[in-house]
Amino acid sequence: MKKIITVVCCSCLLVCSTNAQTLEECRKLAKENYPEIKHYNLLAMSEQFSLSNAAKAWLPQVVVSGQMTHQSATPTYPEAFSKIMAANGIQMTGLQKDQYKLSIEVSQNLWGGGQTRANKAIIKADADYQKSQIDVALYNLNSRVDNLYFGILLLDARASLTENTLQVLEGNLSRMKSHLKNGVALQADVDAIEAELLTTHQHLEQIQASRNSYRRMLEVFIGRELTDEPLKRPEMTSIQHHESARPELHMFAAQSALLDKKRQAIQSSLMPKFSAFAQGFHGYPGMDMFKDMMSKRWTFNAQIGVRMSWNVTPLYTRKNDLAKLDIAQQQIDVQRDIFNFNTRMQTVQDDEAISRLQRALADDSRIVELRQSVRIAAESKLQNGVIETTELLKKIADETAARLNLTTHEIELLQAIYRLKQTLNQ
What we know:
By secondary structure, this protein is of the alpha+beta class. The chain has ten helices and four strands. It is rod-shaped.
């Protein structure tokens, strides 16, 4: 029985943790649900395949070839020497003009000038750069989720305030109807409150429609349905420092690292290459030319050795290739400077918004208290016939606006703080 209770409790905890509707969880779910996340695995597999192919440059290279030729001339013996050989009964026919060869060559790279190492470094640097691009795309997804999340919080708050206003209006409507029955109020007073009540109902329906639209969009982002519970407000945190740690900075660094690896590859392409080889072929003529001049027979032949090759063609374009990489680095530096400039500008704007909202909140609570006191006094005056119904409705609207300002400023302050944290990646 205890085991069953434990399993049920764990399941409930799991469900609760899954349905917890916090900003951080929505961000996490949005990243997991966003199609861009699939690029990580595809990029990792592509990198492994490319590195495996680059490493195969150190495996023995096998080449099988065959050829058949007809030559216009072949080596022959001097006429005097042929006569001497013929006098001794030896017939020298010479090499045939039709020649054949089936060969196989196995070569082993001994030193490639660092080209293989440079190619591997480029593959890794390019994979790191592409991964940083994915990181940037997924990080920028946070802003879109935040806008929806705080939009829902604001609409939830407006809906709650509107419902409170409805309760106030319904209470006053009930009292006015009672006064109407007792002959101390006019039908116009009842009608005015009832009209305001209907207008507020319409306003509430508009807010709820917008709220539902925002929630559906957020559900698309996170890939699951939200519960009926209101979203939780994030904690009011403080900014630790104003140094940016955005993934874009890593992306710029990865671009520069990729250019460095390409420079190394250019230098490696200028180096000579050494390899060992073994070659064998079956055909005619073979390596014993004199024997093949007397007999047209296919023979087996082989040779081994060490080969050096040095392609100097990259020297022609080396200067231009390096200049192009230098220009690309300058472009990266300009992009980094632009990004840092925009980040500083956004940081200043966010700081100013936070300071402004903090100053506004310092007065909002007092304004709400005063507006509430004025509205209560107006309700009492209306009951005593001192003021008109329209005056009471104005006081109720003033109190509602004050409460809305307070809640709006609270949520806007939260959004500004998290926007600054997003700007700095804190």
